[in-house]
Design goal:
Elements (H helix, E strand, L loop, with lengths): L1 H12 L23 E6 L4 E5 L5 E2 L4 H13 L1 H7 L27 H9 L8 H16 L7 H9 L2 H12 L7 H12 L2 E2 L1 H12 L14 H14 L5 H7 L4 E3 L4 E6 L3 E6 L10 H14 L14 E7 L6 E10 L1 H14 L5 E12 L1 H16 L3 E5 L17 E3 L2 H6 L3 H6 L10
Helix pairs in contact: 2-3, 2-4, 2-5, 2-10, 4-7, 4-8, 5-8, 5-9, 6-8, 7-8, 13-14
The chain binds glutamine.
Protein name: Glutaminase
Enzyme class: hydrolase
Family: Belongs to the glutaminase family.
Length: 440
Amino acid sequence: MIPDYLEEVLGNVASDATGELAGYIPELAAVDPERLGAVFATVDGHVYSAGDVDAEFTIQSISKPFVYALALADSGFDAVLGKVGVEPSGEAFNQISLEEGTGRPFNPMINAGAITVHSLVRSEQLAPDERVARVVRGLSAFAGRPLGVDEAVCASEMENAHRNLAIAHMLRSHDILTEDPRIVVDGYIRQCSVLVTTRDLAMMAATLANRGVNPLTGEQVVAERVVRQVLSVLSTCGMYDAAGDWATQVGIPAKSGVSGGLIGALPGQIGVATFSPRLDSHGNSVRGVSLFERFSTDMGLHVMEVPAAARAIVRSNHVAGSGLREVRVLQLHGGIRFAGAERIDREVVDTAPSEPRVVFDLTMVSSIDDVARRMLLEVARRLRVEGREVYLVDPEAMIPDPDPGDGGRFEVVDDLDQAVSLPHEVVARNGRPGAREWNP
Ligand SMILES: NC(=O)CC[C@H](N)C(=O)O
C-alpha cells in the first residue's frame, strides 16, 4: 500500500524539470538532475522507499540541524544560545547579516549560524580535524551506519568558499568565532560534504522523530531536550526564507540542502526524505517540495492538524460489587496527557463518588506522561484524604511508583476482580464519608 503510493506520487512529479542545479559549487552542477527518490522511515525502523534511494550525494545544509544537536549536547544550551539565536531571519541561507548589538547569527540553519555551531562541537581545545571526525561520527550515529566524506565536492566548494569565508571573518570580527575563520569554514565544508543516501536521511529524520533514539541501532544519539530544541528550530527556520509558506502549507519540521535533499521529521511518527537535485529560488528542491506538499495533504501529516479531543479517556465510571464491597471503578483508556488527566480530575469532582473504594483501572491505558501521572496521583491522594481507599489496576506498571509525594503509596493490583474482592478493613475503620465532603 505505502510503496505503491510512493511510486505513484513520484510518477506525478517526475516530469517537472523546473529549477536549476546549485551552480556555485562546480561539482554539484555536474550531477544527474533527473535523480528522484523518496523514503518513509518509521520510528520503529521500517523503511518504505521508491526511486533512487541508495544513490549517494553530499548532505550539505541538511547536516545543520544534526550538528546543532551535537553542539548542544557537547557545549550545553547556554554556550550555544549565547552565540547563535533561534529567530527566523526571513533571509536567504547565505545572507551576510548578523543580529544588531550582539553580532550573533539569527539562527543555526543559515550559514552564519551553522559555521558558528560547527565551532561549538566539542569546543574544549579539540584539534580541528578531531572536531570534524566527531561531526562525521555524530552524523553516522544519526544515520545508523558509518558515513564518509566526498573529497571532490569538498575541494570544489573550498575553492569557491568566498562567501562563507566572508561570513566567517565577520563572525570573527564580532568574537562570535574565536579561532581562525578559515579553519572553521574548512571544517564546516567537510561537514557539508558528508555522503548520504535518501535512505540515510530518512533514518536521520526518524531519529529526531523518535526522541533522539536511532530506530535501527537503538542508540540514544542526543537527549530528548536537545531533540525538542532542534525540531522547534526546524519548524521556524528550516526552509530559510520559505519557512512561513512551508509551516502553513506542509507543516512538517523540515530541512533542505543545495544538493537536492529534503528531510522532514514528524514527532512520534516518521522520518521522511526526498532527493531531487533541481532547486527553486530559495535553494529548496523543486520536486522535493512538491512531494512533501502531497505527503502532507494525502497522509494528514501537518503537525498542526488538531487531533480528536481526548473525550474517551474515561471509558466508564460505574459501580462494581455490592453492599460493603461496593467499588467505584473509573476505567481509563488511551494515551493520557495534560488534557486527559484534567478530564479524569473533573469526572471525579463532578460525580463525587460516595463508595468507600475507588479503583482507577489503567488496563487499557497505552501511555501516560509525567504531568498526567502526577495529576492522577493527586486526584487519588485527595480521594484518600476524603477517607476512600484507592486502588490502581495497573498490570503494565504505567505508574511504576504510585506515590503522590506524601510517602503513602497506593495499592496496585493486576485486575479488577482482585480490587473488588480485597478485604475491607481500612474502609470500615475510616467510615464512609458523604459526598458532601468531596468538594475541593
Ligand atoms: N543550503 C545549503 O545546502 C548550503 C550548503 C553549502 N555547503 C554552503 O554553505 O553554501
